[in-house]
């Protein structure tokens, strides 16, 4: 699949993990998820707090065992935490986020990066990083990037259509409906008692719905994704109203259609059987808490897997947990950073000049 379409597919799949929400009344789990996907797209503003933690990481690969750089990397990543606090509004489009990266071990460090986005520009605050020193005259400044210029530099054409929020919401709704409709309720969805969901303080949920995949359903889940969901996604993206939104050409669409229809089923099923030999899913759950106003108040994702290759004696254990909490949904937002003032902004050319003088470039 071409890179552009693959990136869109990945974005859509990631979107599923953060926008599944609630419904007007407590319904069957799958119906709640399906109806909620549409309702989540009505969020025109919100505050958000997200956290992603690597709770366990064990790597046993004989070829690199004892390598100090690998050992150091594993130590830093284990219990590493990424946080993302943000504020969003659709009209006029403005988003600001603070990303925190906290690494552990002997090389423990914390990095915070502020970002602001409008419908035309992206601002990134140059952080102070001990291991990657930036010139003093750029640290604390906001590096501004024009989205039209970025598109042109990458050989693309910037289109205002790509910023059409209403059309984007409609597109994602169709994708989510196509995705959720293919998975059987009894195998992949269930209700979780609100009292047993370990919700954080301040989350007032009326229903918690879980989407889950186990070892027993892994092959089927992947089969559904490739053979049923992917063709639907391509057909939706091929609609005239979405092509310009996605920046796709007819050649992109034709190539994607050819690829999803050319999947060799024997090879694909053999690959699924091979995965089962090495991969063990201990846990893969996505819990979504639905508040009394039918919006997603909170969501957490738990993934715990083991990979074991008996032929090479390579073993990897990974356990991660992520969560996102939404507040002040559709309320008036109070931005903390705002649009950076000219005195606090530097261009890419100015940034590169400072780096060159420092000898980095």
UniProtKB/TrEMBL annotation:
Signal peptide: 1-21
Keywords assigned by UniProt, alphabetized: Signal
Superkingdom of this protein's organism: Bacteria
Record's protein name: Lipoprotein
